[in-house]
Amino acid sequence: MYGSPYEDFEGSRAEFLKCLAEQGEVPAFLRRAQSVDEALVKLLEQCKSQRAVMLRWPWMHLCILADRLSHDWSLLGPYLADNRHVTCFEHLYVEWKVLLEAKAVSSNAWRSTPRILRDFVEAVQRFNKAWNKFLVDLNLEDINHLRRDFNTHYPVEKACAFASEDVERLGFTPLDPVTIEQLHAEFPPVALPALQIQ
Description:
Elements: H1 11-22, H2 28-54, H3 56-69, H4 86-99, H5 113-137, H6 141-161, H7 167-170, H8 180-186
């Protein structure tokens, strides 16, 4: 999706780079590739970490719902526009349990299942709005500046390292800028089925 600065390394060139690394010499083009790769990893980790923090309220409400249903998600069928979508809640529970620290949460005896379900849906809606704002507000200029510099300087630096002007033979794939749309696809909002209750 984002492209990799390392996809051009192969065969004898990889062996050459290995020899340089063993001698403690890292060519400029390889340092540039590393910095681009590290910037992308840092951005994705930032998104993953922030998403986990922001999902804690929806997760809490989902735990309350699971407790009320005794984890029998089929009981949600009457409250959904299409009762075949009860698996959506189960899938979210399993996925989030892996991502987020599980906490023991019990439902209040006086709250009805429809009320708990509405609370969960409202928490998800707030998350989706806040998550969209977080992604839109991200500053992608720094990482895209690195990627533009990579596209400009990497071929020249690589050609110099291999003492060759045949850049095409050496291999080079320019990197596209990172976009909000890509991050939305990588870290989408939470989709929920339609409810019968309002």
